[in-house]
UniProtKB/TrEMBL annotation:
It comes from Blautia caecimuris. This is Aminopeptidase. GO terms for molecular function: cysteine-type endopeptidase activity. Keywords: Aminopeptidase, Hydrolase, Protease, Thiol protease. InterPro entries: Papain-like_cys_pep_sf (IPR038765), Pept_cys_AS (IPR000169), Peptidase_C1B (IPR004134). Pfam families: Peptidase_C1_2.
């Protein structure tokens, strides 16, 4: 193994001192910090009227200090679909209701995994991966669909936010440690008794504790609520004591939502026109797995454009940490000039492969700007950080940024061709390990 020698240090210093750019960069960084020192091209947010195929202008919600961007993005997508279907003035869905049952189901999914792997050694990699993150606030589209299909949806007024549900760090931390201790109890009991049925009875009691903890933190979800929908024509639809399941089945287009297809555009151990699932990733035990139809980037973008033209927004997953001008609301490759550090950035797949980039955020596309030559310039994105961030809650996502940092999009099957749908439905999916980059959850 090579070690750092005095000769190495002399060479390092010589190279540093003989590059005039280093002194200027040093002065800037110690005074202004790294980000301000690396600022590059500053784009201005284009006029809203320059975006085509825009959705109805609705308020921007704030996920606060929670990891629920995926739920907020999905609920906003459903909000636009619902308003279009019912000519409603506006309608907000309860993110708390979905998050409650998502965490409950994830806890059960975790404990079921512990029982299924009860005989593996403590240092098994799959087991260690699960113990690192027993539950997370974060998620994916398939997990959202699993919850609403089983539990339905609520309007926001029927299960509101509270101080704890808007700041979930401590709750997730305590719940995770609770589940780790439950895992220890289950595995220890099996060593002593070799009785799986006894272990499962203990699991049932443990889930009672989980439900109690979530209810104390977030409030107990209602079984019924009174529905009110205000329409554009001044009419109001009202229904007393409706269940969340009946509301979802009768007032939302279930087929459109549940049959939407997650499209990925990734090259790390994934090939175009094939389907992939992530091992041990899910929430509802009997629900569907996280599954992707992997396409070429241009095919995914064309599907996004087609869906926008039909009047529907597009949920998408990306790496939102790179190239973000938070003040102007711009996503662009030239926001920061990393070449000032004389560091050559890797390509998209290698950034994923080596952990420089990851799928960590979900938002919604609501419009697009197209040049006179019919080329896509940028996309209008609605975020979930309130109207104080970006351009009143919106972002201008340059198309060149999408090419590098968007990894998936949710497309209604009407806007995919028959061959794509057939591959998604009939091809035997390739199983990727839980630590694959597409196994990351958006938060």
């Amino acid at each position: 193994m090579n070690k750092i020698t005095q000769e190495n240090l002399t060479d390092y210093k010589y190279c540093l001192q003989n590059n005039s750019r280093n002194e200027e960069l040093y002065k800037n960084i110690v005074q202004k910090g790294i980000r301000q020192s690396l600022l590059g091209e500053r784009l201005e947010f284009p006029l809203m009227e320059t975006f085509e195929m825009r959705m109805k202008d609705l308020s921007v919600e704030d996920q606060n200090a929670s990891g629920r961007c995926w739920i907020y993005a999905a609920c906003h997508m459903m909000r636009q679909v619902f308003i279009k279907q019912h000519q409603a003035v506006d309608f907000l869905f309860s993110q708390e209701y979905i998050a409650f049952y998502d965490l409950l189901e994830k806890s059960n999914f975790f404990l079921n995994f512990i029982i299924a792997t009860i005989q593996v050694p403590d240092d098994d990699r799959e087991l260690r991966e699960k113990l690192n993150h027993p539950v997370q606030d974060a998620g994916q589209w398939d997990l959202f669909c699993n919850i609403i299909k089983k539990y339905g949806m609520l309007p926001q007024y029927a299960m509101k936010k509270n101080a704890q549900s808007q700041n979930t760090g401590e709750m997730i931390w305590i719940l995770s440690d609770m589940l780790r201790s439950f895992a220890c109890q289950l595995r220890g009991t099996y060593v002593e008794t070799r009785d799986v049925s006894h272990v499962m009875r203990i699991r049932d009691t443990q889930m009672e504790y989980v439900y109690r903890f979530l209810s104390i933190c977030m409030g107990m979800p209602p079984d019924y609520f009174d529905l009110r929908i205000y329409h554009d024509n001044g009419r109001c639809t009202e229904e007393k004591r409706i269940t969340p399941q009946d509301f979802y089945r009768r007032y939302l287009p279930r087929r459109l939502i549940e049959e939407a297809i997650p499209i990925s555009c990734v090259g790390v151990n994934m090939e175009p026109d094939k389907t992939y699932v992530i091992k041990n990733l899910g929430n509802v035990t009997e629900g569907r797995r996280v599954k992707y139809l992997n396409l070429e980037l241009q095919n995914m973008k064309q599907a996004m454009l087609t869906q926008l033209k039909a009047g529907y927004p597009v949920w998408f997953g990306c790496d939102s940490r790179m190239g973000v001008d938070k003040e102007q609301g711009i996503l662009d490759l030239n926001v920061y000039k990393l070449d000032k550090l004389e560091w050559e950035f890797m390509d998209k797949d290698n950034r994923l492969r080596y952990g420089i980039s990851c799928l960590n955020h979900a938002m919604v596309v609501e419009g697009v700007r197209i040049s006179k030559d019919n080329e896509i310039l940028s996309w209008l994105v609605k975020n979930s950080y309130g109207n104080q961030k970006g351009n009143q809650g919106y972002l201008n996502m340059q198309d060149r940024w999408l090419d590098e940092y968007v990894y998936e999009a949710i497309i209604f099957r009407e806007y995919l061709n028959e061959e794509m749908i057939e591959i998604y439905e009939q091809a035997v999916p390739v199983e990727l390990p839980s630590w694959h980059p597409m196994g990351m959850l958006a938060d």
